[in-house]
Amino acid sequence: MDVVWDNAVGLSAILLGLLVVAGLAVLGIAGFRLWRVVRRAQTRVTEAGAALTAEADRLQASLAALPDRQAEMGAAVASLQRRAAALGVLATSAGQAAEVLRAPLRYIGR
User: Fold this and answer.
1) DSSP assigned state of 105
2) Using the 8-state DSSP alphabet, how is residue 110 labeled?
3) Gap between the Cα atoms of 101 and 31, Å rounded
4) How many whole angstroms separate alpha carbon 50 and alpha carbon 38?
5) In which domain, by residue range, is 67 found?
6) Spatial contact of 38 and 46, defined as CB atoms under 8 Å apart
């Protein structure tokens, strides 16, 4: 026991050195784990960012094509209105023709 008391400073320095090395080892392991988690999260965020950028590009292209689509829709509506007007004229003419064809039936009594 006298050896411990005689060399207390040296033994304390050795014990302190071992505790510091053990603490640094634990800290290194924790740091390595943290680095792996951060790297994995960064990969996920990068992938999600790329998907979000692709979606934004698709939406931007869709918005850019919208005026062309509106002009196309306007032309289609105008064409439909012209056809509806022509159909209205044909329907009126067909109704008048049916009245002319039914006119003799009044004289027969039907």
Assistant:
1) H
2) -
3) 98
4) 18
5) 2-108
6) no
pLDDT value at residue 38: 92
Q: What CA–CA distance (Å, rounded) separates 79 from 77? A: 5
Please give the Cα distance from 46 to 40 (Å, whole number).
Answer: 10
Residue 11 CB neighbour total at 10 angstroms: 13
* Cα 74 from Cα 68, distance rounded (Å): 10
- How many structural domains compose the chain? 1
What are the phi and psi torsion angles at 70 (to 5°)? -65, -40
Q: 109 — alpha (psi -120 to 50), left (phi > 0) or beta? A: left
Please give the mean pLDDT across all residues of the chain: 88
Q: What is the pLDDT of residue 100?
A: 84
Q: Kindly write down the DSSP assignment for every residue of 37-62, as one continuous string.
A: HHHHHHHHHHHHHHHHHHHHHHHHHH
CA distance 57 to 50: 10
Quote helix, strand, coil % in the chain, to nearest 5: 95, 0, 5
